[in-house]
Design brief:
two-stranded antiparallel ribbon; 47 helices; mainly alpha; five-stranded parallel beta sheet; binds magnesium ion
């Protein structure tokens, strides 16, 4: 190794840290041939006292889900028995060791995490993954997840990749660069048997950018004159192209048999020497002189390996289509039908010259198995090939639809759209056409074009009307939700969807979901008066278990949110929200979890349970990192707005507006609503009024626009814009009247009080406080006391004002609403009351995660249970808990309850 002192030192440090019991991860990044594999070898050498497990990504395997992960975990599979049953089962299924339903990604991630920590119990563990750019996506996601969640285990994970996939991009990275001039020169001369023109040498070094492989390979096969004259060095190409070309040139000089042998090996991704030998026999290749004839480009021992991955691709790409088909056919023949039917079907497909129904059917069968092993992407790949081999027009449509569906689930949107076009070009019937529209809509929504998606889904729904009414209604519900997410841009389509759904013949025995759809659409066409009673009814139906578990999974978040628009906090805050989130968590329905957490977290914040809201934010972020799902930071913003943290709120608001611009239009309304709350807290009423006016300016008073109305009443009343305030009040009453809950009536009374005069004011404030105190929404109750106190002070009733303001102040402080607390404090000071300012806590603050873990431990969850909830290994949980104990000054779980109570009351009295 030349010129890699600093890189090696860094790797040594990494190993030393792992030895000490710390977790580390690193991605070595750099172009082909730059020396990543060489550095990994150097790393492995310096880790002789660690357990080392390795995997290498293989280009032709990228579609085989969990292939690389299996390779990495293979030496540790003996420890599977020690994993909790669900985790063990999950790994056995994805590694094809036992049959079973496809496990969720989380469970797999968690299982690998447990497996690694388990292995690291005996000796520190080093995982080394080379050519990570060719990891299959399922493996990459899982490994990246594990790398990010490792903390207190003696486990190191080092990847080498040309362009790391997006999964690995969040890990620490070391860019591997070309060798410096002196080192490059030395390396080049070590390969040359003759003297080189100095200028040519310097040019080569410059052209190769110090890439060691290029330096080593370029001179080969060139005569001294060619090289010295510099004629044979092609310029202006991508480096890997140039290197690959060098290999192609070398392959071309080989014997016919040697070339066919290389091609066979290149087409065989497993590297199984026995399989290769069988195929060699079928093609009648003479293997007598393998080593000599393949010029050291390939080696056969326990495994078949190429000198460099580029040799593999060079060999494969330089062969003709006909030659490739022939070797794939030989490989299919050599592959056992019983033992590995999927791989065999794959080779058969590659061997087919034209449509072939038999092979297409086998691929279809394999797709089912591939999917059951957890690989939607693999299923999609098999189905795509099946489509290409299908001649019958009817089957072609069916298979194209299935392939499109699988591709969509696998997150490959463009191929999915291509397949839909194939389906449409075939013999497609009405029902299939509706399915095409539905899938197009879902793809559009998932790629962030909510408004178009809503139109597409509406089209699909109307096609379905004559075919399947139930399916049509659900599709309208889907469309409705998507249109709401598009915000202002979706207002027109929202109205059309609502009208179309209402025009459907009403079902003879309406299910709760039908009542729900009725309520939602009436909200748009007729306003809250007509809608609220139905929504109250369907909310109760969700609550009382009249809705199937599957529908709760899919629609629970919307039902929770809708119950919120009816001011039904009893349903939302107390019962439905926790139940739905639990259901979604337990089912591992990752696609639904982010949106469910967003709804539930917002409610927690509103209820004044900031610790829980913060925990939900942490969980949501873990999920987002795992799935790559993208949803605006609703809970976090709601939380910081109520806390009155202006800088944090401003950054989040900017982010929300950005996301709104990209299609999630409802984020804009939520951002403005949060801004209104923030500025009301900071007593900057003009700004609050401006934000609240924007939030409430939409065509429909839905969700955020509705909840911003009381903010507008308060802000506009404070700046003296009485007209605006009255108008907002009138719109608020539209929904509070039909609702009639204590929350609705309480907020209404508080808002009316702001705009009233004379005796009624006091009566209204008292009513507001009494009603709000019967709800779950502590933030609004505290604000009731504040406003009443402010009014009393204006009326010069100082003692009574002081009592109200003090109550408000205490409640705000207990919740953590600092800006509002300050507003109360200033009022108190103005009437000469003394208020202790918040003193800094003497104890170290627990981090969000420590607090969250401590709370779960207090509630009786074991470390593995907490780990499963937060996607952490039990050891990491233990480590956080240890830190929490130290900060709280306690020694055991039994003390947690008191210590946490102490901590919470400390912030109350501070
Ligand atoms: N620092 C170095 N000094 C000498 N030879 C090197 C050095 N780094 C890499 N090589 C050689 O260059 C070739 C390509 O390196 P490799 O590690 O396989 O690259 P990569 O994995 O980045 O594609 C190998 O033959 C390797 O031995
Ligand atoms: Mg390499």
């Amino acid at each position: 190794m030349r010129g890699r002192a600093s890189e090696c030192a860094l790797l040594d440090d990494l190993v030393a840290a792992v030895r000490r019991g710390e977790s580390r991860s690193l991605v070595l990044r750099g172009e082909a041939g730059i020396g990543k594999t060489a550095l990994l070898e150097c790393l492995v050498e310096s880790a002789a006292d660690l357990t080392v497990v390795r995997a290498v990504g293989v280009e032709s395997d990228v579609e085989l889900a969990f292939a690389s992960l299996h390779q990495l975990c293979r030496p540790m599979l003996g420890r599977l028995e020690r994993l909790p049953a669900p985790q063990r089962d999950a790994l056995q299924v994805v590694f094809g060791l036992s049959p079973g339903p496809a496990p969720g990604r989380f469970v797999v991630g968690l299982a690998v995490l447990s497996l690694l920590s388990e292995a690291a119990e005996t000796r520190p563990l080093l995982c080394v993954v080379d050519d990570a750019q060719w990891l299959d996506r399922a493996s990459a996601l899982t490994l990246a997840f594990v790398a990010r969640r490792l903390l207190a285990e003696p486990v190191g994970m080092v990847f080498a990749a040309r362009e790391p996939g997006e999964e690995l991009q969040q890990l620490p990275e070391l860019q591997v660069r070309g060798l410096r001039n002196a080192d490059a020169r030395a390396l080049l001369s070590s390969e040359l048997r003759f003297v080189l023109d100095e200028r040519v040498r310097d040019r080569i070094i410059a052209e190769t950018g110090g890439n060691p492989l290029a330096l080593l390979e370029l001179p080969r096969g060139l005569t001294a004159t060619q090289l010295a004259g510099g004629f044979a060095v092609p310029g202006g190409q991508a480096l890997s192209g140039r290197i690959e070309e060098g290999f192609v040139r070398r392959v071309e000089t080989l014997s016919e048999d040697a070339r066919r042998l290389l091609l066979l090996a290149a087409a065989e991704p497993v590297g199984d020497p026995l399989l290769l030998a069988r195929a060699v026999g079928r093609l009648g290749i003479a293997v007598s002189a393998v080593d000599a004839e393949t010029d050291g480009l390939m080696r056969i021992d326990q495994r078949v390996t190429f000198r460099h991955p580029l040799v593999r691709s060079a060999v494969y790409r330089s062969a003709s289509a006909q030659e490739r088909r022939a070797v794939h056919m030989a490989l299919a023949d050599a592959t056992d039908r019983e033992h590995d039917p999927d791989r065999r079907a794959w080779h058969l497909a590659a061997a087919a010259a034209g449509p072939d129904e038999q092979v297409a059917m086998e691929l279809e069968g394999s797709a089912g198995r591939a999917q059951a092993r957890g690989g939607v992407a693999a299923a999609a790949a098999f189905l795509q090939r099946a489509v290409a081999l299908t001649e019958d027009p009817g089957r072609r449509v069916e298979r194209a639809l299935a392939a499109a569906q699988a591709s969509f689930l696998a997150g490959s949107f463009d191929p999915a759209l291509g397949l839909l076009a194939v389906a449409e070009a075939g013999a497609i019937d009405e029902f299939q056409r509706a399915q095409v529209d539905l899938l197009r809509g879902q793809i559009a929504f998932a790629s962030g074009v909510g408004r178009d998606a809503a139109w597409l889904l509406m089209k699909a729904a109307s096609r379905l009307e004559s075919l399947d009414l139930g399916f049509a209604r659900e599709t309208y519900l889907n469309a409705w939700a998507i249109a709401v997410f598009a915000g202002a841009a979706g207002a027109d389509v929202l109205l059309e969807i609502s009208r179309a759904a209402q025009a459907l013949p009403s079902p003879s025995a309406p299910r709760p979901l039908d009542v729900f759809l009725d309520g939602l659409t009436l909200l748009i066409t007729d306003g809250p008066g007509a809608a609220v009673p139905r929504l109250l009814r369907s909310g109760r139906a969700f609550l009382e278990g009249d809705v199937s578990a599957e529908d709760c999974l899919r629609w629970g978040w919307l039902a929770t949110s809708a119950a919120n628009t009816t001011w039904d906090d009893d349903v939302t805050a107390r019962v439905l929200a926790p139940r739905i989130v639990q259901l979604v968590r337990e089912a591992g329905a990752l696609a639904q979890l982010p949106i469910t957490l967003a709804v539930v977290g917002t409610i927690s914040a509103w209820s004044g349970d900031f610790a829980q809201a913060a925990s939900i934010v942490a969980e949501a972020e873990a999920v987002a990192a795992m799935t790559g799902s993208r949803i605006a930071p609703y809970t976090r913003l709601r939380l910081v707005a109520l806390q009155g943290m202006e800088a944090e709120a401003a950054a989040l608001i900017a982010r929300m507006m950005e996301l709104a611009g990209e299609g999630e239009g409802i984020a804009a309304t939520n951002a403005q609503w949060a801004a209104a709350v923030l500025y009301n807290g900071l007593a900057r009423y003009a700004e609050a009024a401006a934000a609240a006016r924007q939030a409430t300016s939409g065509a429909y008073a839905l969700f955020g626009s509705m909840w911003a109305l009381p903010e507008l009443v308060e802000a506009a009343a404070r700046v003296g814009d009485i007209e605006i305030a009255r108008d907002a009040l009138a719109r608020l009453v539209d929904s509070t009247q039909p609702s009639g809950t204590d929350l609705a009536r309480g907020i209404e009374a508080r808002s009316r009080a702001l705009l009233s005069e004379g005796e009624s004011v006091e009566r209204l404030y008292r009513e507001a406080i009494e009603r709000l105190s019967r709800t779950q929404i502590r933030t609004e109750l505290a604000r009731g006391h504040l406003l009443y106190g402010e009014w009393l002070r204006g009326a010069d009733r100082r003692a009574e004002a002081a009592a109200q303001l003090r109550t408000a102040h205490d409640q705000f402080t207990a919740i953590g609403m600092e800006a509002f607390a300050d507003r109360a404090r200033k009022e108190l000071l103005a009437i000469g009351e003394r208020v202790r300012a918040r003193t800094l806590k003497t104890r170290d603050d627990l981090t969000v995660q420590e607090r969250q873990i401590a709370r779960l431990a207090r509630d009786g969850l074991s470390n593995p249970e907490i780990g499963a909830r937060l996607f952490l290994s039990p050891r990491t949980v233990e480590w956080h808990l240890g830190n929490a104990f130290a900060k709280l000054g306690i020694r055991s779980r039994r003390d947690l309850s008191n210590a946490l109570r102490g901590l919470e009351s400390e912030s109350i009295s501070a």
